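look at this record:
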Amino acid sequence: MAKKKILMLVGDYAEDYETMVPFQALQMLGYSVDAVCPDKSKGDYIMTAIHDFDGAQTYSEKPGHRFVLNADFAATRAEDYDALLIPGGRAPEYLRLNPRVIELVQEFDAARKPIAAVCHGPQLLAAAGVLKGRTCSAYPACAPEVRLSGGHYADIGIDQAHVDGHLVTAPAWPAHPQWLAKFVDILEQK
């Protein structure tokens, strides 16, 4: 049996844990994970940011790592993948301005392929118009976008994940154990 392929959409200042941990954990489980970024190629890197919850009214941001891309965005086609993964951080706020990114999200959704989005990742789901009538978790600051796009915001614990059909969403990186486990469960059912 061929191993399943996952597309990971990233960009500069994607959240470090939400990029590095799923990328490595899913590979450890035997999946092929292609990390791509618009206007960048295989071998280029993005800068990540570490978001932490250290007592302020919102998360703090610290420099992360250089995350090397292993595939070319320009050659990306949804039909070549079994699932889509969208990390959070600041990247989704500007990635949603790229028409091809929006098309990719819509193509994965139309094909009912598993989509995992965490933290600010659901900003791409909202911008792509795929949340109408669906329930989605996200970082709490993204709740208005989920609602304005016609979705229902799942106000769950920061270490929890929510499933609605083929969508698996979570508020932030503390949810990795649940979020990734639920994503893998859905991916293995396909």
